[in-house]
Write a structure and sequence with these properties.
two-stranded antiparallel ribbon, globular, 7 strands, 5-stranded mixed β-sheet
Amino acid sequence: MKVAFATDDGNRVNAHFGQSPMFAVYNVAKNGGELLELRKLPALLNEDEAGRIDSRLEAIGDCTLIFIMQIGASAAARVTRRKIMPVKVPFGSPIDEQVKRLVEMLQGKPPMWLAKVLRAEEEGEGEGADGTHG
């Protein structure tokens, strides 16, 4: 599964969803995790809150989980509607440690919230973002 981390340095979860300058996107599976890419967001001067949320949703639309330091209520609602689970972690949490924890959860008995996410991802496999097969 693809997992995004809100970051400003590519190493730590240290950004609020709406202000994150980039997302480190990892592929995480039972056999480990690997960095796929750093998705940098363009700095738009007059972007309002809705625009900031839209641009970030666009950047992480193919991810299953988003690790953030904070997320506002309206952004969290929009993220979960896109079937992306927001996961709050302490400021400055090392991304590699979060990836390692996720891998360990996948190898063992995943907690309820992760099992639910994995089921939803399995049911949605082969579908595009618009719900069509493709």
